[in-house]
Structure formats: structure tokens, C-alpha cells
UniProtKB/TrEMBL annotation:
Residues 58-312 form the Sugar-binding domain. It holds the Pfam family Sugar-bind. The keyword DNA-binding applies. This is DNA-binding transcriptional regulator LsrR, DeoR family. It comes from Salibacterium halotolerans.
Length: 315
């Protein structure tokens, strides 16, 4: 390419990319055909005269989304930018991203199942008020108690029903009871068993991902004792979804905590057409990795710090 051809290429690229001329307008200006202009613009990119750079924080998150979708064979991954914000702001951003995802597809849903905890609270708190009378909401885990009521599944489900101006079921049971025998007895009640069965028939289940820790929602609400946490760790529990604990391979463990919880199991979640997991906080990265291996999760909403750890870390 001689200097005249290069000069013309730069001129055409400048008109197109910097001055927003159309290819037709440029063709008239330089007296060349439009297909020739298109080829010159393509050539300018190929030889490096034109380099396109997208200056936006979402470019980074889109790349993370694509890589996570491929790594874990997900239908979709949505990554919220955490920037330099604190944990509470990040949780709200993740909740907002989850709320936007569900709101956009609400017209295609008939039943939505809701778990419990801080991530679910952020998701529902950020959910926009809109019409959704055709949708029925179902708690996926027991939700009775006097501590931190705003985090209970029944409260969260009712709150979302108000925003959608629709109906919700009520699961008349706590998330966890004292003994396995008491759970079996409660499950004989039609009021409880029918809502659990309803949960198995939802089109979309929204769940959080947790860890066996003193900071876990169940521990903060008094369902866990320090001995329970030690026992779960000894039993190789690495995390939980819907308060059902699993090991590093994402398989539900055999443990009294699981057996005393009134909730849909991981096997139940696997049968639901779409499970949306909403979580943040890098301390949960191993738990989330195992949850993604379980095959339960179809769509993930998380923050970019967590997404980066999922891709960087060897488990």
C-alpha cells in the first residue's frame, strides 16, 4: 500500500468512525462505490489503523458472563459490577440484576418459588412494582419464627406478591425443627405437604447460596448451634442452597440438619425447569463452585469479584 492509498484509508476511516458519516455519504464524497468503502473500512481494522475500544465497566462483566456460562454450561450468567462499593451496596446491585432478569420474563411464568435469606431480601426489595396477577408465588422452605422475620420465606413471598398484585401460598412451618420425627409428623399435615408439592411445580425457583458458618442466615436466626456448624463441616458440607447442604461435588450430604429442614431438596430443585441462584461475597466461592457442579442451577446472578474468583481459582 503506497502513501496515497493509506492516506485515503485514514481519511475514510476518520469520516466514518469520528465524524459519523454513512458509507453512502463517504462513497459520494470520494467518488467510490459503497462496497469499496466497506472493504476499505474492514481493511483499516485488519491492519490496525482503526482499533475499536469499548470504554464501559459492563464490557468487563460481559466477558465474565460469557466465560462462566461456558465453564458451567449455564443458560445465562449475569454479573453485576461491584466497583469500589461496600458489601451492602454490592448485595443490592446483585439483587437489582436478579430482579431485572425475573421482571423481564414475568409474562411467561405462572409460578415462582422463593427461598429465604439476605440475597432473597435484596432481590425482592429491588423488584419493581408491576402487573403480574397471573403469577402465583410459593415459598420453597418453611418460614415461621420471631427473629429477623423480614428474611423468612413467607414474608418475602408475600412482599413480592404485593409488588405484583397477585397471590402467594403460606408454608405453616419453621425452616427447621428440633427432631427428624417432628419433621415427619409435620409433613403429614396437608397445609404443609401441599405447599411443598406446589413448590415442586414452579416454573422458576429463586434461591441463594450459603456456607456452614456462624455468619450464615440460619445461624444468625438461631436455627444453628455452634455444634451444628462443626457437625456439618465434619460431614464435608461446603455449602447450601435452600438450606440443603452439599459437599464439594454438589451432592446433598446425609446429615440431621438436612433431615430436620422443611424445604425442597436438591433433587426437587433439579426437576424444576429453571433455577436462578442469586449470591455474592467471595467467601462463598467454593460453595458456589460446588453448587454450579450440582446441575441444579440454570441461571446465575453474582458480582464480578465472585465471578473472577470462579474463573481464576483451581478447586
Amino acid at each position: 500500500m503506497d502513501w496515497k492509498e493509506r492516506r485515503q484509508m485514514v481519511r475514510i476511516a476518520k469520516l466514518y468512525h469520528l465524524e459519523n458519516w454513512t458509507q453512502t455519504e463517504i462513497a459520494k464524497k470520494v467518488e467510490l462505490s459503497r462496497p469499496v468503502i466497506s472493504k476499505i473500512l474492514q481493511k483499516a481494522k485488519e491492519i490496525g489503523i482503526v482499533e475499536i475500544y469499548i470504554n464501559d465497566e459492563t464490557l468487563h462483566t460481559v466477558k465474565l458472563e460469557n466465560e462462566i456460562e461456558k465453564k458451567y454450561n449455564l443458560t445465562e450468567a449475569i454479573v453485576a459490577s461491584s466497583g469500589t462499593h461496600g458489601a451492602e451496596v454490592v448485595k443490592r446491585r446483585v439483587g437489582q440484576a436478579a430482579a431485572s432478569y425475573v421482571s423481564k420474563k414475568i409474562d411467561s411464568l405462572n409460578r415462582i418459588g422463593i427461598s429465604w435469606g439476605k440475597s432473597m431480601h435484596a432481590f425482592i426489595d429491588e423488584f419493581p412494582a408491576r402487573t403480574g396477577e397471573h403469577v402465583h408465588l410459593v415459598p420453597l422452605i418453611g418460614g415461621m419464627g420471631s427473629n429477623d422475620v423480614y428474611l423468612h420465606s413467607n414474608h418475602l413471598t408475600f412482599h413480592l406478591a404485593q409488588k405484583l398484585n397477585t397471590t402467594s401460598s403460606y408454608l405453616h412451618a419453621p425452616a427447621m425443627v428440633e427432631t427428624e420425627d417432628l419433621k415427619e409428623s409435620l409433613m403429614q399435615s396437608r397445609d404443609i405437604s401441599e405447599v411443598i408439592e406446589e413448590g415442586r411445580t414452579v416454573d422458576l425457583a429463586v434461591v441463594g447460596v450459603g456456607i456452614p458458618s456462624e455468619k450464615a442466615t440460619m445461624a444468625e436466626m438461631g436455627y444453628f448451634s455452634p455444634e451444628d456448624i462443626q457437625s456439618l463441616r465434619a460431614g464435608k458440607a461446603i455449602g447450601d442452597m435452600n438450606s440443603q447442604f452439599y459437599n464439594k461435588d454438589g451432592a446433598e450430604i446425609v446429615h440431621t440438619v438436612n433431615n430436620r429442614t422443611i424445604a425442597l431438596t436438591l433433587d426437587d430443585l433439579q426437576q424444576i425447569p429453571e433455577v436462578l441462584a442469586v449470591t455474592d461475597g467471595v467467601e462463598k466461592v467454593e460453595s458456589l463452585h460446588a453448587a454450579l457442579k450440582s446441575g441444579c442451577i440454570d441461571v446465575l446472578v453474582t458480582d464480578d469479584d465472585m465471578a473472577g474468583r470462579l474463573l481464576e481459582q483451581t478447586f
